[in-house]
UniProtKB/TrEMBL annotation:
Its main location: other. Residues 242-315 form the CusB-like beta-barrel domain. Residues 379-401 are annotated as: Disordered. Residues 118-183 form a coiled coil. The gene is macA_2. Residues 125-200 form the Multidrug resistance protein MdtA-like alpha-helical hairpin domain. Gene3D superfamilies: 2.40.30.170, 2.40.420.20, 2.40.50.100, 6.10.140.1990. The chain crosses the membrane at residues 24-42. GO terms for molecular function: efflux transmembrane transporter activity. This is Macrolide export protein MacA. The lineage of its organism: Bacteria, Pseudomonadati, Pseudomonadota, Alphaproteobacteria, Hyphomicrobiales. Belongs to the membrane fusion protein (MFP) (TC 8.A.1) family.
Length: 401
C-alpha cells in the first residue's frame, strides 16, 4: 500500500493536483510579508538625516593681532678693527671671546721700517735747524755790512755799488732763512706723519666689548695700500639688534615704535621684548619676494642672545582684554563691508549684523550685535552617524554560510 500511495502522489504531482495549487497563494503571501517587513526594518522607513550644524558660543577673552617674521640678530655696536699701515703682524694679544676695554693693546705690527723713517726725519730736521742757525748768523753779518755801506754812502765815503751789493746780500740771507724755515716745517710734518704710522703699528681697542672673531694670523703680512686689512672684530654684546624681514604686504602696518616680542629656536618658551627702532627703506628681493628689514634693539645682560641666532618675531598691532570673541570663520563680510553672523535662536537660525574690532585667524572681537553666551553657526557638516530611524539597535550583518 505504501508503494501505491507513493505512486499515486507522484502521479498527482505531475498532473498538478488541487492541493498543490492551493499552496502557491499562501507561499506567495508569506514571501511578500517577509519582504515588506525587511524593507521597513532596513530602510523602508528611513528619512533623510538633516546636516549637523557646527556652532560655537560667544565667549569673553583676550585677543591680539600681530605680524610675524623670521629674523637674525647681530650686536647693535661692533667695530672691525683693522690696520692703517702695512707690515708683518707680530702679535695678537686677545683670543676669541675675550672681553677687552677701550685702549687695551690688541695687536702689534713690526715697527722697524717706521722707526727708521722717524729717525731719518729727525736727523733731517736737526740738519735744517743747524742750517737755519747758520743762515741767521750770516743774516746778522750781512745786515751790519749793509748798514756800514749805507752809512759810507750817506757820508759820501763809499760807492753806491758797494751799498747796493750790501743791501742785496742782506735780502738774499733773509730769503735763505725763509726757505729753511719752510723746509723745517715740511720735515716736521713728515716726522709727525711717520710718528703716527709708527703709532699705528700698535693696535688698540676702540670700544669696550668682546672679541667675536679674529681674521688675521700672527706672522702674516698686512698690506694696507690696497685695502684696509681686518685683524679682528669687537662687539658690544650687551645690546643686540634683531633684523626681521617683513613682506611688503605687511610693512605698511608697522611703524617706528611698534612693540614686538620674539623667541629663539633654542629657547622657544622665553620671550624678549622691544620696539621697532628703524625700518630700512631699501628692500631685499628673495625669489621675487620683496622684504624690508625692520630693526629691533633688545638688552642682553645675561649674554643669552648670540650673533646670527634665528628668531621668530611678532609685531603687536593691537590687543584687547576681556572682550566678546567669536570664531573668525563665523563672520561673513558683504561686498559693502557689512559683517554678519548666523545666530541660533528659538525660532531657528537668524542673520544678525555685527560690528567687529580686532581680528586674527582664529577669533574676532565683537563690538556690537552679540553678547557672551550667544551661539553662532560656523558651518554645517555631514549627518551624524548612528542607528537609522525605525530601528531600536544597530543592524547586524547577515550571517554567512
Amino acid at each position: 500500500m505504501l508503494q501505491r500511495a507513493d505512486s499515486d502522489w507522484t502521479m498527482e504531482g505531475k498532473a498538478g493536483s488541487p492541493a498543490r495549487r492551493r499552496r502557491w497563494p499562501l507561499v506567495l503571501a508569506v514571501a511578500l510579508l517577509a519582504a515588506g517587513a525587511a524593507y521597513y526594518t532596513y530602510g523602508g522607513n528611513t528619512q533623510e538625516a538633516a546636516p549637523v550644524l557646527q556652532t560655537a558660543r560667544v565667549e569673553t577673552g583676550d585677543i591680539e593681532t600681530s605680524v610675524t617674521a623670521i629674523a637674525k640678530m647681530q650686536p647693535k655696536t661692533y667695530v672691525d678693527v683693522g690696520t692703517q699701515v702695512s707690515g708683518q703682524l707680530r702679535t695678537i694679544r686677545p683670543d676669541v671671546g675675550d672681553v677687552v676695554k677701550k685702549d687695551d693693546l690688541l695687536a702689534e705690527i713690526d715697527p722697524t721700517v717706521y722707526q727708521t723713517r722717524v729717525a731719518g726725519d729727525r736727523a733731517s730736521l736737526d740738519n735744517l735747524r743747524a742750517q737755519l742757525a747758520q743762515a741767521e748768523a750770516q743774516l746778522t753779518l750781512d745786515r751790519l755790512r749793509n748798514e756800514r755801506a749805507q752809512q759810507l754812502l750817506k757820508n759820501q765815503s763809499g760807492s753806491k755799488d758797494a751799498a747796493d751789493a750790501a743791501e742785496a746780500t742782506e735780502r738774499i740771507s733773509e730769503a735763505k732763512i725763509d726757505a729753511l724755515k719752510a723746509q723745517i716745517a715740511q720735515t716736521q710734518a713728515t716726522l709727525e706723519g711717520d710718528l703716527a704710522n709708527l703709532g699705528y703699528t700698535k693696535i688698540y681697542a676702540p670700544i669696550d666689548g668682546t672679541v667675536v672673531s679674529i681674521t688675521a694670523r700672527e706672522g702674516g703680512t698686512l698690506n694696507a695700500n690696497q685695502s684696509a686689512p681686518i685683524v679682528l672684530r669687537i662687539a658690544d654684546l650687551q645690546t643686540m639688534t634683531v633684523t626681521a624681514q617683513v613682506a611688503e604686504g605687511d610693512i605698511p602696518k608697522i611703524t617706528v615704535g611698534t612693540p614686538a616680542y620674539f623667541s629663539t629656536l633654542g629657547l622657544p618658551d622665553r620671550r624678549w621684548r622691544g620696539q621697532v627702532r628703524q625700518i630700512e627703506p631699501t628692500p631685499t628681493i628673495v625669489n621675487d619676494v620683496v622684504l624690508y628689514n625692520v630693526l629691533i634693539d633688545v638688552p642682553n645682560e645675561d649674554l643669552t642672545l648670540m650673533t646670527d641666532m634665528t628668531a621668530q618675531v611678532f609685531f603687536r598691532l593691537g590687543e584687547a582684554k576681556g572682550v566678546p570673541l567669536v570664531p573668525t570663520p563665523a563672520v561673513r563680510t558683504a561686498r559693502d563691508g557689512t559683517q554678519s553672523v548666523r545666530v541660533v535662536t528659538d525660532k531657528g537660525p537668524q542673520d544678525r549684523v555685527i560690528k567687529t574690532g580686532l581680528s586674527n585667524r582664529s577669533v574676532t572681537q565683537v563690538i556690537e550685535g552679540l553678547q557672551p553666551g550667544d551661539t553662532v553657526i560656523i558651518g554645517s557638516g555631514a549627518p551624524a552617524a548612528g542607528p537609522r530611524p525605525g530601528t531600536d539597535r544597530p543592524r547586524m550583518p547577515p550571517r554567512l554560510g
